[in-house]
Structures are given as C-alpha cells and as structure tokens.
Amino acid sequence: MRRLIRSALFVPASKPRAIEKAAHVGADLLILDLEDAVGPDEKDEARARVAEALDSWSASGAIRAVRVNGPDAAWNAADMREAARADAIVLPKVNQVGDLHAARSALSAHGTSIPIWAMVETPLGVMNLNGIASATGTGLAGLIAGTNDLAKDLRCTAEHGRLALVPHLAAIVCAARARGLYALDGVYNQFRDPKGFRAEAEQGRTLGFDGKTLIHPGQVDLAHLYFGPTSAELERAARIVAAFADPENAGKGVISLDGDMVERLHLDAARALLSAAGDNDA
Ligand SMILES: CC(C)(COP(=O)(O)OP(=O)(O)OC[C@H]1O[C@@H](n2cnc3c(N)ncnc32)[C@H](O)[C@@H]1OP(=O)(O)O)[C@@H](O)C(=O)NCCC(=O)NCCSC(=O)C[C@H](O)C(=O)O
Ligand SMILES: [Mg+2]
C-alpha cells in the first residue's frame, strides 16, 4: 500500500543552509530544486551540490527528489545526470507524453529507473493531461500542480480562492486518480501567512489532492494537519475494519455503523488509510 505524501518541500540547491535545515523538518518529500529557485549564474554550483545534499538527507525518512531544468534548457542534460542519484525526479513544465519518454530514456542511460513526478503547469500540459497521466509505463508516480507558472501562462490572477485555477486543479486530481497516481497541490507563496496557507490547504484537500508542495519549513506541520489523516479519521477507519471483522457481519456487503451506511468500498478505503499511516510512522 502506498505511503502518505502530505508535504513536498522545495529546497533551492543554491542555498546550503536550507539544504542542511531540510533534513530535519519532517517533510514527506524533499525536492532539491535546480530550476526556478536557482538563478542562471548559480546553476553549475547548485548542480555540483546535488550528491552531497542527497547524502545529507538519507536519514531524514523523506523521499529525496531533484527538480531538473526542462528539456529545452541548456542545463538539462547535466541536471539529469546528477538527478539520477535521487529517489525520484521532478520534471517541470511537462507538456506532452513525449517529455516523459525522453526523461525515462535519459534516466535509463544513467542506469536508473527512479520514479518520475510530472509538473503540470502549462496550458498545453493541462490539455494533454489524459496522455500524460496514462504514461504509467514511464515510471510516472505523480502529478504536481505548478500554480505560479500556470497562472502566468493563463494570464489569470490567483485571487478569489484560486477561482480561475480550480477547474485545472480538479482536472489534475481527476487524471491522477484515473491512473492511480499521486496528486500534489501547488505552492502558497505568502510563506509568512499561516491563515492564508490554511485556507488554501483546506481547498486543496477538498479538491482531493494527497498533499501540497511547499516553499518554507514553517509550512510542513500545517500541510500534515490538513492532508491528515486526523486521529478521528484513523479511529473511524479502525472501527470500520473492526465492524466488518465482527462474525455477526461476516459476508455482508453493507452494514450500519454509528447511524451511517458503510459498504465494502469504505472498508477498502479504511484499510488503505491505516496502511498508509502505518508506513509513514515506520
Ligand atoms: C521564500 C524564501 C526565499 C524565504 O527565505 P527566508 O526569508 O530566508 O526565510 P526565513 O528567514 O524564514 O528562513 C528560516 C529558516 O528556514 C530555512 N529555509 C527557508 N526556506 C527553506 C526551504 N525551502 N527549505 C529548507 N530550509 C529553508 C532558512 O535557511 C532559515 O534557516 P536558519 O538560518 O537555520 O534559521 C525561502 O523560504 C525559499 O527560498 N524557499 C524556496 C523557494 C523555492 O524553492 N522556489 C521554487 C519552487 S516553487 C515553484 O517553482 C513552484 C512551481 O514551479 C510553480 O510554477 O508554481
Ligand atoms: Mg513552475
């Protein structure tokens, strides 16, 4: 059963202090960024830090990923070589399924089959979601909404509870769910505004995202709070499992629990939740 990924912290590879700090912040996924957080003049120095940064995160318990510069960038080939050391790779601005096949080939040439996370952050990427999400043979693990780039390219504003982005976010979740992939929400830029973060995290959870991408360590605990599971959800799941295990309910398709109708699909969801929570505790 798959583990929970509630928090995915971007860590600029150009910031040694942030790399050091990231090892201890408790994020489920750490994304060492070689792309937008790193200025053009810092790229080579940042890339040279990848191996050491990944090593320094090996005891963190997090999945360690590297976000490379996109296939059109001059830095891409060198980035791919270093990223092949990670547990996973994050590809920015995925426009079509061919981008995933190209990345898979490059990673194979470096002798690795690490999972790929695709950032959906262009109008073309949203339009091609079906094909992108169907590319599970490329080792695709999840979709990540890139809300800053998407808002820029759509020329929409990120106001009114992300009104203009919501249809695209829902499409990303739907594509991920249809193919059994993770779906992670975009970042919240106002990193000193916990109230605004809470509202956006709640919205992301409501839309069905598994977790949220983050830019600051102060956002990790809040992401875990919103992308749960809460202790009440865990207790409820345990009660559902226990109820179906009761010999009185043996073979039943539907039972009554605390005034609710509970079906076997709820039992499956309860088992998945308990298993994922157990994996993260391990
Ligand atoms: C946003 C920041 C530039 C703010 O930096 P700063 O003002 O220095 O923050 P603090 O002083 O509050 O930092 C406190 C300590 O925390 C460490 N820190 C800060 N950020 C991180 C981090 N991301 N990971 C790990 N540690 C971090 C500082 O080093 C301080 O440590 P200490 O000295 O011990 O107290 C900064 O937070 C930042 O650079 N964040 C990441 C920005 C980033 O990665 N951007 C690119 C990814 S987002 C994106 O591209 C999304 C997508 O593509 C889209 O299109 O939407
Ligand atoms: Mg982006």
From TrEMBL:
Residues that, per the record, bind substrate: 67, 121
GO molecular function: lyase activity; magnesium ion binding
Residues binding Mg(2+), per UniProt: 121, 149
Keyword Transferase set for record: no
Superkingdom as given in the UniProt entry: Bacteria
Domain named HpcH/HpaI aldolase/citrate lyase: residues: 6-217
GO biological process, one term: oxaloacetate metabolic process
Cofactor: Mg(2+)
Protein keywords: Lyase, Magnesium, Metal-binding
UniProt family annotation: Belongs to the HpcH/HpaI aldolase family.
Name of this protein: Citrate lyase subunit beta
